[in-house]
Amino acid sequence: MTSQNNPYSSAGGQMSANVTFGASGAAPAGADLIKDTTTAGFQADVIAESRKQPVLVDFWAPWCGPCKQLTPVLENAVRQAGGAVKLVKMNIDDHPAIAGQLGIQSIPAVIAFVNGQPADGFMGAVPESQIKEFITRIGGPSDQETALNEAINAAAELLESGDFVQAAKIFSSILQATPDNVDAAVGLATCLLESGDAEKAREILASLPADKKDAASVRALEAKLALADQVKLIGDPIELERRVQADGKDYQARFDLAQVRNAQGRREEAADELLAIMRADRTWNDDGARKQLLQLFEAWGNTDPATLGARRKLSSLLFS
């Protein structure tokens, strides 16, 4: 499928849709999410404000190298949280009293205040992912995150119902807002695969950051793409059925028929064809039937009923 006849593509080759998430992913321009404070201002900026919403206090100093690493990451995470928390920064060289009262002995140190009291915290220049988890734990999901999750769920329902065009539009919009969102990338790639554009589906997965490519959903879709490539080379399923009926030892025909059954969505039958080969000849094609069955399990997912049923049969066959 080219960009000209791909129903998901806009003129520039990218999908588009009028889907928004919260207030465009950032707090309103007037929202004072990040500020510096003093010993005198601590009561109003932290204690009083934390009775309205959680406040993170970043204790730092100009000479602290890890502080310089943490500050921009922390500020970015707070902005992305869309108002779930506020950030107050305190220079302990200029204002040491509060840090001393809290027993802070090393920096950077981030303490979360909730309802006027310290509730949780961490020390050191931790990774951004841990900061985001901390903010979610303290402040709960932001309006943007909630809207994003609702959009993903809506698109997943459309995908499940077979409405690949509308599902793809939503997934594409999600990726425009959060380019490394694995759920949206896999959803969009699945829409493309189901619509016959396997190559574009591969491009979507390839665009994910390296640390996202090992996700179970990504591996499962890659397995589906590999199976789709195999099916292209198989041939006429009616002829394969005839060959199997004519010669029960035509294992290649039965193996190919299993691929067709999987492509048709007849997963239990696909598994049964491969299991039949294993019962007759475990050594055929270097144990190829078992290896192919394991690939199907990965493509279907560990909780799929077809996987669960076939695993029971496989276990009985191997260990009986």
Automatic annotation (TrEMBL):
<dbReference type="InterPro" id="IPR005746">
    <property type="entry name" value="Thioredoxin"/>
</dbReference>
<dbReference type="Pfam" id="PF14561">
    <property type="entry name" value="TPR_20"/>
</dbReference>
<protein>
    <recommendedName>
        <fullName>Thioredoxin</fullName>
    </recommendedName>
</protein>
<dbReference type="GO" id="GO:0005829">
    <property type="term" value="C:cytosol"/>
</dbReference>
<dbReference type="InterPro" id="IPR017937">
    <property type="entry name" value="Thioredoxin_CS"/>
</dbReference>
<dbReference type="GO" id="GO:0015035">
    <property type="term" value="F:protein-disulfide reductase activity"/>
</dbReference>
<keyword id="KW-0676">Redox-active center</keyword>
<keyword id="KW-0813">Transport</keyword>
<keyword id="KW-0249">Electron transport</keyword>
<dbReference type="GO" id="GO:0045454">
    <property type="term" value="P:cell redox homeostasis"/>
</dbReference>
<dbReference type="InterPro" id="IPR013766">
    <property type="entry name" value="Thioredoxin_domain"/>
</dbReference>
<dbReference type="Pfam" id="PF14559">
    <property type="entry name" value="TPR_19"/>
</dbReference>
<comment type="similarity">
    <text>Belongs to the thioredoxin family.</text>
</comment>
<dbReference type="Pfam" id="PF00085">
    <property type="entry name" value="Thioredoxin"/>
</dbReference>
<keyword id="KW-1015">Disulfide bond</keyword>
<feature type="domain" description="Thioredoxin">
    <location>
        <begin position="21"/>
        <end position="140"/>
    </location>
</feature>
